[in-house]
Amino acid sequence: MSRVSIEYKNHIAHVTLTRGDKMNALDDAMIKAILAAGQEVAAADIRAVVLSGEGKGFCAGLDMASFASMAHKDPTEWLMTRSHEDANEMQELALIWRRVPVPVICAIQGVAYGGGLQIALGADIRIAHPEAKLAVMEMKWGIIPDMGGMVLLPELVRSDVLRLLTYTARPIAAPQAADWGLVTKLSDDPLTEALALAEDIAGKSPSAIRAAKRLIDVAVTRDRAQVLLAESSEQVDLIGKPDQMEVVMAQMQGRKPEFK
């Protein structure tokens, strides 16, 4: 059975986790399917991605069989191998959405626990149902978040919040998650809102949107001088080019821009 589906429409890729009967829990087939989907959309001619899970929950994290199989593997071998640039396979489940060159919007309903939360954190924007619950769940199983969580979480929450979430493994409600910065906004229909936001982004200059994502990645990870230089470099590549000129002409003519 397929674990992930991809639908392309209006320059938007809608990536859906399709193991809804298991709360989209992560088994080996799901892990491979998510990585393949991320690689596919990263190479596609698109302008935005919507990431969601079918059924009652976005993703409940690793399934029990996967936990059981961990006991029979040498953790050094499969965790220390850098198979995807600076990441191992499990870390890439979250980080691949940062490598996708266009904005990724994650719609969260039900639960986003453990690995499921870390996948959602890889998105640029998270829209959650008010009744959704999120958890840095790993401590419940005697482990620590190791799917890119310690790269992504410190960008979003204060150190004390990060420590509370990690030490306790307690699920928190989406409104609290929004207050703490884990969730961008709440919606009674997160998928519909995510798709509408993707359509809005898809109507902007494709080259400027990609430049903005690259620049923001620099802004949150590099020092002042590197950020200032990146601003200038990205702008040089945009000003006077076809996409930017079309935006200007569309504004002057009171119409929507049309990009080639």
Automatic annotation (TrEMBL):
Pfam families referenced in this protein's UniProt entry, alphabetically: ECH_1 (PF00378)
Keywords: Fatty acid metabolism, Isomerase, Lipid metabolism
InterPro entries (UniProt xref): ClpP/crotonase-like_dom_sf (IPR029045), Ech1-like (IPR045002), Enoyl-CoA_hydra/iso (IPR001753), Enoyl-CoA_hydra_C (IPR014748)
CDD domains recorded: crotonase-like
Gene Ontology molecular function: isomerase activity
Cross-referenced NCBIfam families: PRK07509.1
Protein name as it appears in the record: Enoyl-CoA hydratase/carnithine racemase
Organism this protein belongs to: Ruegeria halocynthiae
Lineage start: Bacteria, Pseudomonadati, Pseudomonadota, Alphaproteobacteria, Rhodobacterales
